[in-house]
Amino acid sequence: MNLKILLGMAEERGEIDRIDRDELVTAVAEDVTAAILYDNFLQAQILSQEASRSVESMESYEQGIQLLETQGLLDRKIEYLPTSDEMSERGRAGQGLTKPELSVLLAYAKRSLYEALLDSDLIDHPNFLQDLRDYFPKDVTNRFAHLVAEHPLRRELIATILANQVTNSEGITFVIRLMDQTGADPAMVVKAYRIARVVTNAERRWSELEGQVGKLDPVLIRQLLNNVDWLVETTARWFLNNPAGQGPLDEVIAAFATDFETLSESIGTMGAAAWQQTRAEAIRSLVDRGVPEPIAHSHAYVEDLVHGPDIIELSQQTGRSVAEVSGVFFRLGRAVRIDWLEQCISSLEPSDRWERLAKQAAEADLVTLRRRVAERVLARAGSRGPREAVRKYLNERADAHGRTLIFMRQLADEGVDSIDAVIVATRQIERNMT
What we know:
By secondary structure, the protein is mainly α. Helix content is about 75%, strand content about 0%. It is built from 23 helices and no strands. The protein has helices at about 1-10, 20-25, 30-55, 60-70, 85-95, 100-120, 130-135, 140-150, 155-170, 175-180, 185-200, 200-210, 220-240, 250-265, 275-290, 295-300, 310-320, 320-335, 340-345, 355-380, 385-395, 400-415, 420-434. Helix 12 runs antiparallel to helix 13, helix 14 crosses helix 17 and helix 19 (about 340-345) packs antiparallel against helix 23 (about 420-434). It starts with a helix and ends with a helix.
């Protein structure tokens, strides 16, 4: 219907006749079918990911259901969704939602986001006109791209496209989680998502993995897709929480995208030898499981790229290169044991919502702490390179650094089995090293 409306506009202006129009509709039928099949593929893919995610965070799905009920969009009884008590019981039993249940929630999450976007002015931004052009077959837009902005359903189409993009890539509870964590409204979350998606080049990362479907273990593909989704989410959260993300959409993307790509391409050389060795082993492990080496290389550094926005912003503020700043970031992680604490956090399994939120807060605190120490190192670095700058800073604070290492050795001997220990250790590093 939307295609016929566009071609009808062209016909009214004398840019196409009825016979040419009908022939064009027939010619692009395969493209339309392919687009529909790809959208179905994306939905099936995200539902597989959501089936495993829901086991770990049932409270997020319950929160989403409650929000949809409050909006008057969803009646869980009519849709045969579990009650709040049943959701809690499943969470305690380590059971998630079924794919049919998730399919229902996926549809309602898209509808909710669509309506929120339609009520915002975000979809009027020129950046999204390209999404609308890409929505139509290429043979159509090659001839009538100039009419797309005048489509009578332009806003509705863009809202639909964005709701599908966000939900098909990041899942049912993504918008709700970021609203809860940052206080943002849905349109602000979608703006941050678009920035993060472009800055991290997530579309290429997803596409590379989709090309491996049928070649690699589906569980491995799902794990790698989850890693990319996580990178987009953490980057979007950064832009929501920092002033640098509040500017005009195109300006924010322009300020970060090129430097992020530079960091992504050269990150393997940024850290100390031991750091590089650990990543090289991760690459070999993925290659041994059949992952093509370029993709393995890209994914071995995904967790390190969480520092990308901080590195780039600090580079811009200090006038130092991304390589210099990232070299300091990654060397500090090992020198003051932030890397080790991050590994400890990742091994902890939260048992409820509050432990999960505490874990997220502890992870965020370590990211912030690394930046604060890096800022101090760079302020005293002079003309020194990353290795010498970090060494100089640690020598100047030799006693404090020694106390930090002693504390960390004691903590390692006792074992880290709770977020409390991580919080105390974080404060210890903060006192001694900043």
